[in-house]
Automatic annotation (TrEMBL):
SUPFAM superfamilies: Aldehyde ferredoxin oxidoreductase, C-terminal domains, Aldehyde ferredoxin oxidoreductase, N-terminal domain. It holds the Pfam family AFOR_N. It comes from the Archaea. One of its GO terms (molecular function) is oxidoreductase activity, acting on the aldehyde or oxo group of donors, iron-sulfur protein as acceptor. The keyword Metal-binding applies. Residues 4-206 form the Aldehyde ferredoxin oxidoreductase N-terminal domain. This is Aldehyde ferredoxin oxidoreductase. Belongs to the AOR/FOR family. Its cofactor is [4Fe-4S] cluster; tungstopterin. It comes from Fervidicoccus fontis. SMART domains: AFOR_N. Keywords: 4Fe-4S, Iron, Iron-sulfur, Metal-binding, Oxidoreductase. Coiled coil: none annotated. The keyword 4Fe-4S applies.
Length: 608
């Protein structure tokens, strides 16, 4: 087999043993890798209805056929599990040297089951696993723990680790690497923490099997050059994703005051132009010539790596208009291993609850001192921090009907940084994202605001499906960064060519669409199996966007229309081959080779 090792390393933390799971080429040609591999393994290895924080819930670290190879922006990995935040499928994509080392370890993925009694970490050297004592690094933040591990094992390795938030089961804790790259928004850090697993240290030196190494090197060189010579390269290098602050504010989609509004008069105080003036460094993921991690010094003079989502959620959404203060909260989130998007949402939700008099402890909009004090409290689940650590959906349920009106999440995952009062296509993207509200699968908003913004057209629904298939299907399963394509227009044909050189298989975009369709239907089946029921309302965006119109800017008065959204959702289901409830039809499952999921769905919800 070329492009894949054909093997997953299954690590059992109870027995402190590892074994190989061999998978054949049909498996890989059906699911490719990364997210595809993760959901297929999860379906097999997770006992039905498993508690996400029980030792029986597997944690999957998966690479794809292109990750970790010397090709553009390939230093990525998928971390996946059943989510303690949503109760459904959860994953994230992390840029890390661990990608390079996993690729050279002799395995495509690592599946971790069981739990240790005492804190441990895994040291995996060319596929050989050691279970090492982590007592001395348990409780340390991710930056310090990573340093300690490098002192012991050297610098030429890749490390995935959790902070105090993951250790203490914060429902939106993440897996962190390289002091500022974070992945697994829906609580993948908490899953790792529930296993008492502080870190995975990877070292790999084996040559990955490739179909045509020379052709891959040639195409890769061409692609690197195409990126360097692209029109937007200079602007990208200057601001990266931070340019989106100004764009979002101009488009009136910048989340402001818990997604109450889409414009903020102080947005320049957290924007890309200011960041450029304060910038002290630029970082990024391995094998990338777009290095988009812009670093500034925060209020305490520590370095903090900024991205649009972090800044919007910890800036405009909580009304904090000082970039160095925002940077400080962001750096603390990385240290603690907390997702910034859910953190910004949770703080904003609580601020609004406080403003409405629904909670006894006050938290004012933009109160930096209080937020700064709260971040470690959340990570350690102390006092009010314990409430915020539960995330928006659970906080809202405890506040009754009124709480639900301003709870900004889908399926339990807090919404990322685009307000959708006046963006029905993006609302559908959030509603149907396979992990809950996240923009990674379909970022239709830039297209939407520049075209027929307020329409609920079939064309938009088709575009959402297309974007999901490319972003959530192709990029998440190849497991490489999508930004060369999204931001600089790198032709998708490069990826198909590189897949051919790596695997020997000639894929067309139609083949990819089929694989994506398979992955989306399997993920949907997993959600249904784990919940034991399904209703289409789970695919609705937050109620706030239907009920409470914008009051500021040129879009004042705008809100979403439920009936029109419902029509879009029905079109979406029809394109995906799902019934009116959002459940894959029997014939869809069959045509995708997913018959094996039918019995459990038949038993719980019935198939049409
Ligand atoms: C991603 C989500 C994003 S998406 C951002 S900023 W973005 C936030 N970053 C966080 C952070 O940082 N620290 C922290 N404690 N929490 C954070 N939460 C948020 O997590 C990220 C980049 C970015 S920056 C984006 S868009 C692209 N995402 C990709 C993706 O999803 N898939 C893919 N194939 N390529 C991608 N390329 C880009 O990668 P999640 P990273 Mg990420 C500090 O993790 O769970 O997927 O959520 O991993 O290595 O930091 O790269 O404006
Ligand atoms: Fe990482 Fe940014 Fe490069 Fe993507 S573009 S690989 S997120 S540094």
């Amino acid at each position: 087999m070329n492009g894949w090792w054909g093997k997953t390393l299954v690590v059992d933390l109870w027995k402190k043993r590892a074994k190989e799971l061999e998978l054949d080429i049909n498996f890989y040609s059906s699911f490719i890798g990364g997210r595809g591999l993760a959901i297929r393994l999860l379906w097999e290895l997770a006992p039905m209805g498993v508690d996400p924080l029980s030792p029986h819930n597997p944690l999957i670290i998966a690479s794809g056929p292109l990750s970790g190879l010397p090709i553009p922006s390939s230093g990525k990995l998928v971390v996946a599990s059943k989510s303690p935040l949503t109760g459904g499928y959860g994953d994230g994509n992390i840029g890390t040297m661990a990608s390079h080392h996993l690729k050279r370890s002799g395995y495509d993925a690592i599946a971790i089951i069981g739990a240790s009694e005492k804190p441990i970490y895994l040291y995996i050297d060319d596929g050989k696993v050691e279970f090492l004592d982590a007592e001395s690094i348990w409780g340390l933040n991710t930056f310090k723990a990573e340093e300690k591990l490098k002192e012991v094992h050297g610098r030429n390795l890749g490390i995935l680790l959790i902070g105090p938030a993951g250790e203490n089961g914060v429902r939106y804790s993440t897996v962190v690497s390289q002091k500022g790259r974070s992945g697994g928004r829906p609580g993948m850090g908490a899953v790792m923490g529930s296993k008492k697993l502080k870190a995975i240290v990877l070292r790999g030196t084996k040559e990955p099997p490739l179909y045509d190494r020379n052709a891959l090197a040639e195409t890769s060189k061409e692609a690197y050059n195409a990126i360097l010579n692209s029109k937007g390269y200079r602007a990208w290098i200057a601001q990266g994703t931070m340019a989106t602050v100004a764009w979002s504010n101009a488009a009136e989609v910048l989340p402001t005051m818990n997604f109450r509004e889409g414009v903020w008069e102080e947005s320049a105080s957290i924007g890309g132009d200011l960041m450029e003036k304060l910038k002290v460094d630029r970082r990024g993921c391995p094998y990338c010539n777009m290095q988009c991690g812009n670093v500034i010094e925060d209020l305490s003079s520590f370095e903090s790596e900024l991205d649009y989502e972090n800044v919007a959620m910890l800036g405009s959404n909580v009304l904090l208009g000082d970039l160095r203060e925002v940077a400080e909260l962001n750096r603390m989130a990385d240290e603690m291993g907390i997702d910034t998007i859910s953190l910004g949402n949770s703080l904003a939700f609580y601020m609004e609850a406080s403003e409405r008099g629904l909670v006894s402890e006050r938290l004012e909009w933009g109160d930096f001192r209080e937020m700064k004090a709260l971040v470690p409290e959340i990570a350690r689940r102390r006092g009010l921090g314990g409430f915020l650590a539960e995330g928006v959906m659970r906080m809202a349920s405890s506040l009754g009907e009124e709480g639900r009106d301003f709870a900004v999440h889908v399926k339990g995952l807090e919404v990322s940084a685009y307000d959708c009062h006046a963006a029905p296509g993006m609302a559908l993207a959030y509603g149907t994202s396979p992990i809950g509200a996240h923009h990674k699968d379909a970022w239709i908003i830039s297209y939407e605001v520049s075209t027929d913004r307020f329409s609920y057209s079939r064309e938009k629904v088709e575009r959402v499906v297309y974007l999901q298939n490319v972003r959530g299907g192709l990029f998440e399963s190849l497991t490489v960064c999508r930004l060369p394509w999204v931001e600089l227009g790198l032709d998708l044909q490069y990826y198909l060519r590189m897949m051919k050189h790596a695997t020997g298989i000639d894929w067309s975009m139609d083949d990819i669409a089929m694989v994506s369709q398979r992955i989306y239907s399997l993920i949907r089946a997993f959600w249904i199996r784990e919940r034991g029921s399904w209703r289409r309302e789970l695919d609705y965006p937050p109620i706030r966007w239907f009920k409470q119109p914008l009051t500021r800017g040129s879009l004042a008065g705008k809100k979403l229309d439920l009936q029109s959204y419902d029509k879009m959702l029905s079109m979406y289901y029809e394109i995906r081959g799902w019934d009116e409830r959002g459940i894959p039809r029997k014939k869809t499952l069959s045509s995708l080779g997913l018959d094996f999921v039918a019995p459990s769905l038949e038993a719980s919800v019935g198939l049409s």
